[in-house]
Design brief:
2 domains; 4 helices; 79 residues; mainly alpha; SGNH_hydro_sf; SGNH hydrolase-type esterase domain-containing protein
C-alpha cells in the first residue's frame, strides 16, 4: 500500500473524491487543452473565434437595431 497510497494522496489536491476533478484539477486540464488547441488547431482557439452573440456594448450603442444584433451567430464563421 505504500507507494500507491502516496501517489493517490498526492492527487487528492486535484480531486474532490478521489475520482472527480476539483477546481485545481480542471484548471490544469483547461490549460493543457488550450496549449494543445493553440499548437495543433489554432483556428479553433477561443481567441480566433467570434462570439456567438455580439458584446452588449454594441447593442447598447445601437438600441434601435438590437433585434438584428442579438441574433445568434455561427462561432466558426468569419466576421
Amino acid at each position: 500500500m505504500g507507494r500507491m497510497w502516496e501517489e493517490e494522496q498526492n492527487l487528492s489536491e486535484y480531486l474532490v473524491d478521489g475520482l472527480h476533478l476539483n477546481g485545481r484539477g480542471y484548471a490544469i486540464v483547461f490549460e493543457e487543452l488550450m496549449k494543445s488547441i493553440s499548437e495543433h488547431y489554432p483556428e479553433l482557439h477561443y481567441d480566433n473565434l467570434q462570439s456567438v452573440f455580439v458584446y452588449f456594448d454594441l447593442v447598447e450603442r445601437d438600441p434601435a437595431n438590437y433585434r438584428t444584433l442579438v441574433t445568434k451567430r455561427d462561432a466558426f464563421e468569419k466576421a
